[in-house]
Design brief:
heterotrimer; A alpha/beta (395); B alpha/beta (340); C mainly beta (133); A: 395 residues; alpha/beta; Peroxisomal Thiolase, Chain A, domain 1; 11 strands; C: 133 residues; mainly beta; OB fold (Dihydrolipoamide Acetyltransferase, E2P); 2 domains; three-stranded antiparallel β-sheet; 1 helix
């Protein structure tokens, strides 16, 4: 992958509860913002293939979609377009496929776009759909009743508390950091700060997780244009290069899993991506990690090798992951404050990584050392899928 | 005749004072009754009673060739309960699976079915299961009195703890209370005094009298006597008419667990067997909708070595947890949350 | 969106696994996969043997779900249980009066319970109850 693929444009819309915007409105806006972001301009006809990331249509009232959905909404019916889904890492994996498309040598310039319209259903319903709380899971309800992100991550949190002595304050601290970051990011769903007390006083969703420990149900769309590294300069003087891209897999049934303080999908995605990039975790300046729940951010930090098991909470408390800390995590506000429109999330994170690496992040700019940023997602019925992309300002 | 190889009961843990249920509607009764939890029903109760019975019997479930279940509380008019319970024991598809329903005589009828199959040498060993949790409506006598519980008895010819000595049935067309297909509750007694005397007492007395004669015994030889308990006092007259000393009647259950319907007399039997001695004779008679099955049992030596394997009725009686009337209303679905 | 009823092939197919607890134990890596399957979920081996899950175990992890699906009274308590002899099982607790009673390591046993009702048909399955010490 090294030296083969570059990002030349990124665009998104503000994530949030966008009741006035349809899936088509969001896709078009993100796409147009993405085209506009290409410094030296680009003719849409130069895009020769596209990947459309959307987690769900049917569950949340958006029907059954395909690659044609994106193609017709951007008015380009002459290229191959694939709709792709891989649970919560859909966005990151969509980006990965776009990179593979270019790295394969088949396409010079391609588009990756993710979009999710979650708020046409009450938020409780879309949250339930995201885990299949009732019988509708293909599995037996005696196992799966009420299952979903909150239940699974709460189960991890309970073990983190038991094994490492993590507390609900430790988890809440993630929300405090990310909400603060979110107030500096114009695209973030939430634009308000929270305190530890506010988090701990918010209603219990799934003990030990409170409402403010959970990412919101969000609408949004984000896109990236990716091209052959050796022609990137045609489009921008600040191409950002893809060093590594990987998907890591673990079990899809929660009861097949061994440990609830480690998510092997992340570990494997990270290891493979670091190997492809030829770098170590310590070389990464900052990262956008999948904090669907506050405790998950701590798991992710440890699983990717930015901290040893049981140490992330302490490092967070010391401020090491703050925007001006030694390794900023989620300068965009993370899923917690920036939002989680599932198909778009990963691409929104890519936009943040690219923006930071180009040093165009304004008030929320992080300090760069090696000019390397990492994007990470994890999800699935047992959190068995993870996507990691590593980008750099040098090839 | 065949006998009981082992038995098990299940009573849910929730209890509500009968007066809490009755007073708002102008009814009352002494004591309390057992109530199913929100995830319990006749099937789940039966499943645990069956596990207890298998453990007590000390047999392999594969020895069971037939499952006879009796209930007046089935949630289905067309769909059997027996196959669900057969799954819980991993029984073979060639197992006979029969549901008895239609009256409070259902469990006694299931016993007859099992004994007849053994006598016909069609099977050697079967399990009889009774489970009850009748639907009620606010303001009815049933709402005040009906409890919930289950009983399972492995019946066979080997290793029995008590053998059947005789059966005598007595049935006529008689309507005292009913649950019609479209109704969501069991009706009140049509006329309590009429129904008590010409229904329950008449049929129980005739069935028992017939059995006692058949066995050529005296009523006093039965150390333990079990009769159904719709209420605390209904057994007194039959006992008197049959010459049964009141002390030989099984301990009152209706004011601790409620009226357990078709399971009532067999759960009483379980309580008796928990402490009976070899050689004791037991007389029991069921009653439901104009039918009574009287049965005589004699306790065998095996009862003592197997006794350590039982989960006694007393444990379930004592493992009680009181609930409020509001909880009761929700559990019995008298109060249901609006769908939207 | 209509959900499959207990009458659907999905539920019928699961009867043996749900009621009889039939899984497999991999003869190569020892992993217990459930429901039964031809290929070991952990290592991909075909060298698997049927294995009946035990009904007893201890709590590996849990949480207290205050936002269950609409027809269920909160809270419900999902648990992942370490079964005796290996393997794990995901299910709900029953007879939990105080969520504080539930701890990692608490001994539990499976009991049959009614999971839900759909179109008048009941779905049964195992839940866990705290076992007596």
């Amino acid at each position: 992958m090294k030296g083969k693929v570059a990002v030349i444009g990124v665009g998104m819309i503000k994530f949030g509860e966008l009741f006035e915007k349809s899936l088509e409105n969001m896709i078009q806006e993100a796409y147009l913002n993405c085209l506009k972001s290409v410094d030296k301009g680009i003719d849409p006809k130069e895009i020769k293939a596209a990947w459309f990331g959307q987690w769900s249509g049917g569950y949340i009232g958006q029907g059954s979609q395909s690659g044609a959905t994106l193609a017709s909404m951007i008015g380009n019916l002459d290229i191959p377009v694939t709709r792709l889904e891989n649970a919560c890492p859909t966005g990151g994996d969509t980006f990965r496929h776009a990179c593979l498309g270019v790295a394969s040598g088949l396409y010079d310039v391609v588009l990756a776009l993710g979009a999710e319209k979650m708020r046409d259903k009450p938020s409780a319903e879309s949250m339930m759909a995201a885990g299949g709380g009732g019988a509708d899971t293909g599995w037996h309800p005696s196992w799966m009743l009420g299952q979903g992100g909150p239940v699974i991550q709460a189960m991890h949190a309970v073990r983190q508390m038991h094994d490492f002595g993590y507390t609900m304050e430790d988890f809440a601290r993630v929300a405090v950091k990310n909400h603060l970051n979110g107030t500096l990011c114009p695209f973030a769903h939430f634009q308000f700060k929270v305190s530890i007390e506010q988090v701990l006083n918010s209603p219990s969703i799934c003990w030990p997780l409170h409402l403010l420990d959970c990412c919101p149900q969000t609408d949004g769309a984000a896109a990236a244009i990716v091209c052959r590294a050796d022609i990137a300069k045609r489009y921008t003087d600040k191409p950002i290069f893809v060093l590594g891209t990987n998907v890591g897999i673990d079990h899809s049934q929660l009861w097949d899993r061994n440990s609830f303080v480690e998510q092997p999908a992340t570990v494997k995605a990270g290891k493979g991506a670091f190997k492809m990039a030829g770098i170590k975790p310590a070389d990464v300046d900052f990262a956008e990690l999948h904090d669907c729940f506050t405790n998950t951010e701590l798991l992710n930090i440890e699983d990717l090798g930015f901290a040893r098991k049981g140490e992330a909470a302490g490092m967070l408390k010391e401020g090491q992951f703050d925007r001006n800390g030694s390794r900023p995590i989620n300068p965009s506000g993370g899923l917690k404050a920036h939002g989680h429109p599932i198909g778009a999330t990963g691409l929104g994170q890519i936009l943040e990584v690219v923006t930071q690496l180009r040093e165009e992040a304004g008030g929320r700019q992080v300090k760069l050392k090696n000019g390397i940023g990492l994007q990470h997602n994890i999800g699935g019925p047992a959190f068995g899928v993870s996507a990691v992309n590593i980008l750099s300002r040098t090839s | 005749m065949a006998g009981i190889v082992g038995y098990g009961v299940y009573i849910p843990r929730y209890r509500i004072a009968k007066k809490e249920v009755g007073t708002p509607w102008g009814n009352s009764a002494p004591g309390e009754k057992a109530v199913c939890g929100s995830d319990e029903d006749i099937v789940t109760m039966a499943a645990e009673a069956m596990v207890n019975a298998i453990n007590h019997s000390d047999i392999d479930p594969t020895e069971i060739e037939a499952i006879y279940i009796g209930t007046a509380s089935s949630p289905y008019i067309e769909q059997q309960i027996a196959p669900i319970l057969a799954e819980t024991l991993s029984l073979h598809p060639e197992t006979t699976m029969i549901d008895f329903s239609g009256s409070l005589n259902a469990v006694a009828n299931a016993v007859l079915g099992c004994l007849d199959a053994i006598a016909a040498k069609r099977i050697k060993c079967g399990i009889v299961v009774g489970c009850e949790d009748r639907a009620t409506a606010p303001g009815t006598e049933g709402d005040v009195n009906f409890g919930a519980g289950a009983i399972a008895m492995v019946i066979g010819t080997h290793g029995t703890i008590a053998d059947f000595e005789g059966i005598h049935t007595y049935s006529t067309l008689f309507m005292d209370r009913w649950h019609a297909t479209g109704d969501k509750w069991v009706s009140n007694w049509y006329d309590y005094r009429f129904d008590r005397e010409y229904g329950y007492q008449k049929h129980v007395i005739e069935a028992c009298r017939g059995l006692i004669q058949k066995l050529g015994k005296d009523a006093t030889t039965f150390k333990h006597v079990a009769l159904p308990e719709p209420d605390d006092r209904i057994r007194d007259l039959p006992a008197k008419m049959l010459g049964i000393p009141r002390d030989n009647l099984a301990p009152v259950m209706s004011s601790t667990l409620g009226d357990l319907g078709s399971c009532s007399v067999f759960i009483s039997l379980a309580g008796i067997l928990d402490s009976a001695n070899p050689g004791d004779r037991i007389l029991l008679a069921s009653y439901g909708s104009g039918s009574s099955n009287a049965m005589g049992l004699v306790v065998r030596d095996q009862i003592e070595p197997k006794r350590k394997r039982i989960v006694p009725l007393a444990k379930y009686i004592n493992g009680r947890q009181p609930i409020t009337y509001t909880s009761y209303l929700k559990l019995k679905e008298h109060l249901v949350r609006a769908p939207y | 969106m209509a959900q499959p009823t207990p009458a659907s092939p999905l539920f019928w197919r699961f009867n043996a696994e749900v009621f009889r607890l039939i899984g497999i134990k991999c003869q190569d890596c020892g992993h217990i996969s459930y429901p039964r399957t031809k290929i070991c979920h952990e290592c991909g081996s075909l060298n698997v043997q049927e294995y009946k899950l035990p009904k007893k175990g201890s709590i590996h992890t849990y949480c207290v779900n205050w936002t269950p699906p609409p027809q269920f009274e909160p809270p419900i308590t999902p648990v992942v249980v370490d079964l005796e002899g290996g393997g794990k099982y995901l299910g709900l607790m029953t007879e939990v009066d105080k969520p504080e009673e539930i701890k990692i390591g608490s001994r539990v046993e499976m009991v049959l319970r009614k999971i839900m009702t759909d179109r008048g048909l009941n779905v049964y399955g195992y839940k866990f109850r705290l076992a007596e010490v």
